[in-house]
Amino acid sequence: MNGVIRQVHRWTSVLFTLAVAAIFAGMAIGEPPEWQYYTPLPFLFVLLPTGIWMFVLPYLRR
Ligand code: HEM
User: Fold this and answer.
1) Residue 1 carries which DSSP code?
2) Atom of ligand 1 nearest to the CA of 58
3) Which has the least CB within 10 A, 5, 7, 20, 34?
4) pLDDT per residue rounded down to tens, the chain (62 residues)
5) Relative to the CA of 52, which ligand 1 atom is closest?
6) Which protein residue has the closest C-alpha to ligand 1 atom 12?
7) What are the structural domain ranges in the chain?
8) Backbone angles phi, psi at 40, to 5 degrees
């Protein structure tokens, strides 16, 4: 179960990074559409709980 959470965190972090990079690429070309600024947010909302879970896990085990 914890391995699954780590995998989810790992791969959403890749998608999150790509979404942020796409925004900067769009800014280099011109003015990106406003919705593009929000594309990293769903990934961040996955990263936050999975990351907090991995953070507290060693303390819960103790
Ligand atoms: C939003 C809040 C976040 C929290 C609270 C958080 C927390 C954590 C924690 C506790 C770990 C485990 C570290 C360990 O092994 O001891 C971790 C791993 C990791 N985090 Fe996050 N993180 C967050 C966001 C992000 C973001 C934004 C990225 C990248 C864009 C990211 C990328 C990663 C990666 C690649 C790992 C290693 C996973 C693996 O391959 O095992 N995290 N994070």
Assistant:
1) -
2) 16
3) 34
4) 889 999 999 999 999 999 999 999 999 999 999 999 999 999 999 999 999 999 999 999 98
5) 5
6) 54
7) 2-61
8) -75, -20
